[in-house]
Design a protein that fits this description.
- The complex is a heterodimer of chains A (112) and B (116).
- By secondary structure, chain A is an all-beta fold.
- Chain A contains no helices and 9 strands.
- The radius of gyration of chain A is 13 Å and the shape is globular.
- With 116 residues, chain B is mainly beta.
- Chain B is built from no helices and 11 strands.
- In chain B, the strands form 2 sheets. In chain B, strands 2, 4, 5, 6, 9, 10 and 11 form a 7-stranded mixed beta sheet that branches. A 4-stranded antiparallel beta sheet of chain B has the order 1-3-8-7, with no helix packed on it.
- In chain B, β4 and β5 form a beta hairpin.
- Classes of the chains: A mainly beta (112), B mainly beta (116).
- At the A-B interface, β3 and β4 of A face β4, β5, β6, β9 and β10 of B.
Amino acid sequence: DAKTTQPPSMDCAEGRAANLPCNHSTISGNEYVYWYRQIHSQGPQYIIHGLKNNETNEMASLIITEDRKSSTLILPHATLRDTAVYYCIVRVEDNYGQNFVFGPGTRLSVLP
Amino acid sequence: DSGVTQTPKHLITATGQRVTLRCSPRSGDLSVYWYQQSLDQGLQFLIQYYNGEERAKGNILERFSAQQFPDLHSELNLSSLELGDSALYFCASSEPRLAGDTGELFFGEGSRLTVL
């Protein structure tokens, strides 16, 4: 079972920041928070990941609370092409497939 | 383009039949993962191979099997197909474990299987 809880859906206006929350209250000290997204029925796409510190890349920012029990993915200027299902995953940083557990995710709709 | 290639993109077959899905990982990636995504369902991890050997097994039915060949491509074999096997089947690959790599999975575009 997924170790994360996300809202099933969210809307965001085009050009505004999209803030997608994720709860992971049982996260362990060696588990990272990963975010992926799936646009329509395409293959999931990696967005960002982090352990303790906030992270930023060209796609998004990841804010992790100090107690690490929750995090927020921020898309700073959402576009229509950001409409997708966003998955928050917690896992140890290894190559074992069973540790990549995808939950239902959040369906983000970016509205014009 | 993730660099992971899956064939065929679409496949329609009948119940009781057998199909083979093929995956070519990114150049240099040693791990191959298979996932199943049924209609309106999340991705379910099926099985993982690393450099030709099975590394991890998830919710894979006994009717399904997989292997990874010396050239690192992988095949997922689905037999005695049932209507409920209709789904998107994704393959992903990942880099060998090196310091500093993200541990991310690179997904292919999937094979859509329809069982009639």
